[in-house]
Amino acid sequence: VNSSLDARMQAYRDAGVQQVVIGLADIDGVIRGKFVDLSKLESLMAHGGGFCDCVLGWDVDDQLYDHGTYTGWQTGFPDAQYRLLTDTERTIPGEHTPYFIGEFVDDTSDFHPICPRSCLRRVLTRLGDLGYTARSGFEYEFFIFKETPQSIREKGYRDLTPVTPGNFGYSVLRATTQSEAFNGLMDYCREFGFPLEGLHCETGPGVWEAALAASEGIEAADQAALFKNFTKVYFQKRGELATFMAKWSMDYPGQSGHYHFSLLDAEGRNAFSSEQPGGIPDVARYVLGGLMRYLPEWLPLLAPTVNSFTRLVRGAWAPTAASWGVENRTAAFRFIPGDAPRQHVENRVGGADGNPYLAAAATLGAAARGIEEKIEPIAAVVGNAYEQEDVMESERRFSPTLRDAATRMGKSNAARGVFGDAFVEHFVGTRIWEAQESERFVNDWQLNRYLEII
């Protein structure tokens, strides 16, 4: 091992590499990390490293949570140990700087109790015990503005200028006019090791949609986390700004983070395929049954912010209850028929603001429970799913707010069985905190409605 490490470090020196970047995803999917010198990298590769565990105990504004036992003032904020995943190495395009993904570790278990990446590995292991490997890919919608981190603050996040005007989904005119940016982003993602299958304009001023190429196991979530972070980097280096908020304006549709997946059996065959064209085999039915049964309980894993719930409304291209249909984009779960390799399920619940590790863990965890319990789904929705919502059982409807959804998840014995008590307690607490933070502020709607009249 030492000779292999020595050879690797010498290869870096011979190539002129002087430092690398390491990054780990926090509970919100935000990548936290640092640049490190080669001498430090050698130590990290040999022994692992530590981050102040506040990165697991604060929100997106670096404000410390006021609850929990894993981390907090009462613990003194010791280092949380992590391992460097050397097989995730890729090079940041144009910088000659290697990048590594890290994962938090626990001394007593193969799975860290609250690390999002470890949470997904736990679920993938469960699927593996059932004889299946996930093959999946994310697709994201995101708005791009002719703004900078400084200008959006100076403007108070108002009157932002999109890169293009008007509603023009799938526009070849817009895409080819901006071909430098389109080609540039696709090249950047390919060189960085998270290639895009497609990239196009969506409906709304300055909104694009990117579909990442499918991959097996945890790689899909790794690539999605990198895509979200480094798409922002790509545009900020151009003097522009990309956002993955679920809904930045009530004037436009929300921004989705859909998750496409199938399961491969031990021979590598698609377990969702059927000998009959468009047929739905038992495994796929059980998976749909699991999604229907459990994802309403685990909604915060797919809709983790207060803003998420402004997207989950009727008629806004986002589901409001657990439903499924064949090639039906009004349903929460869309079964997509095709030839043997391509037949799969699309989870349309998640927004672009979701942590990809947790969105995948929720989806695949529910799928695993469906297979284990052989849960049969209710009949597929035909036509407009929104119109059929009122006759659905209450347990299939999504909670209307983050606070309600988090409270519901906290009561889910199934969530505790799949993700562990420690994770559920911590994660639910972080979502209650997020709701509390929003309740502390007066927003524009309240001012417009009440300031003069009430």
State the CATH architecture of the largest domain: 2-Layer Sandwich
- Described by the principal axes of the CA atoms, the overall outline is globular
Which value, in Å, is the CA radius of gyration? 22 Å
The helix/strand order is HEEHEEEHEHHHEEEHEEHHEEEHHHHH
Average pLDDT reading: 95
Strand content: 15-25%
β-strand number: 14
Task: Please tally the helical runs, counting DSSP H or I stretches of 4 or more residues.
Answer: 14
> Strand pairing plus helix content: what structural class?
alpha+beta
CATH topology of the largest domain: Creatine Kinase, Chain A, domain 2
Question: How many discrete structural domains?
Answer: 2
Largest sheet report = 9 strands, mixed
Low-pLDDT windows of residues: none
Q: Could you name the CATH homologous superfamily of the largest domain?
A: Glutamine synthetase/guanido kinase, catalytic domain
Query: In the CATH hierarchy, what is the class of the largest domain?
Result: Alpha Beta
Helix share of residues?
25-40%
Characterise this structure.
InterPro entries: Gln_synth/guanido_kin_cat_dom (IPR014746), Gln_synth_cat_dom (IPR008146). Keywords: Ligase. This is GS catalytic domain-containing protein. Pfam families: Gln-synt_C. GO terms for molecular function: glutamine synthetase activity. The chain is of the alpha+beta class. It folds into 2 domains: 104 residues, Glutamine synthetase, N-terminal domain (Ubiquitin-like (UB roll), Roll); 324 residues, Creatine Kinase, Chain A, domain 2, CATH 3.30.590.10. It is 35% helix and 20% strand. The chain has 14 helices and 14 strands. The strands form 2 sheets. Strands 6, 7, 8, 9, 10, 11, 12, 13 and 14 form a 9-stranded mixed β-sheet that branches. Strands 2-1-5-4-3 form a 5-stranded mixed β-sheet, with helices on both faces. A hairpin with a 4-residue loop joins strand 4 and strand 5. Helix 12 crosses helix 13. The radius of gyration is 22 Å and the shape is globular. The model has no long low-confidence stretch (mean pLDDT 95).
